[in-house]
Amino acid sequence: MSKANKHRGRCRTHGRGHKAGRGAGKRGGRGRAGMNKHRVMTRIKYMPGHWGMHGFNRDPSLRTVYVTCNVSDLERMAEGKDSIDLTEMGIDKLLGSGRISTALTVTVEEWSAKAAEKISAAGGSIEGDDEEEEWE
After folding, report:
1. What's the domain count of the chain?
2. What is the pTM of this model?
3. Domain that holds residue 81
4. Between 22 and 100, residue with greater pLDDT
5. For residues 41 and 110, what is the distance between their CA atoms, to the nearest angstrom?
6. CATH code for the domain in which residue 112 is found
7. Which runs of consecutive H residues, i.e. helices, occur in 26-124?
8. Are the beta carbons of 99 and 72 closer than 8 angstroms?
9. CB under 8 Å to 86, separation ≥6 — which residues?
């Protein structure tokens, strides 16, 4: 006979004491209750870095977000032409990922050094507002 069955129907508490049978009282709350109080060591040991702020966010006015395109996409976008205007398509920056074998004249505001290297190696050139300027 179990303890619960033994005490059933006899006294008010059925052998559990007064507090044990009320809600989640005996286990100290449900879920993550008490993580900043009586379960603080559990939090420190098993959940390091879970609470608090991490990293930072720059103000959106300081962020520069480019609409980019890779060198590998240029041949498909040119569709047989020998020049392509990316600024007209709404692309701000040309990046150097991928390969290119066609000599193209690309017009774009900004580009990476790798993109310029690959396009010039294929016999093409880049034109744009952001020409390489030397600092004096």
Report:
1. 1
2. 0.55
3. 60-127
4. 100
5. 53
6. 3.100.10.10
7. 40-46, 74-78, 113-121
8. yes
9. 69, 94, 106, 107, 108
In a domain, 65, yes or no: yes
Position 97 in a domain = yes
Please list, in sequence order, all residues whose beta carbon lies within 8 angstroms of the beta carbon of residue 8, skipping any fewer than 6 positions away. 14
Q: What does the pLDDT look like over 116-129, one tens digit per residue?
A: 999 999 999 999 86
Q: Are residues 84 and 75 in contact, defined by beta-carbon separation less than 8 angstroms?
A: no
80, part of any domain: yes
b/e burial code for range 96-134 (CB count within 10 A of at least 16 → b): beeebeeebebbbebbbeebbebbeebebebebeeeeee
Dmax (CA) of the chain: 96
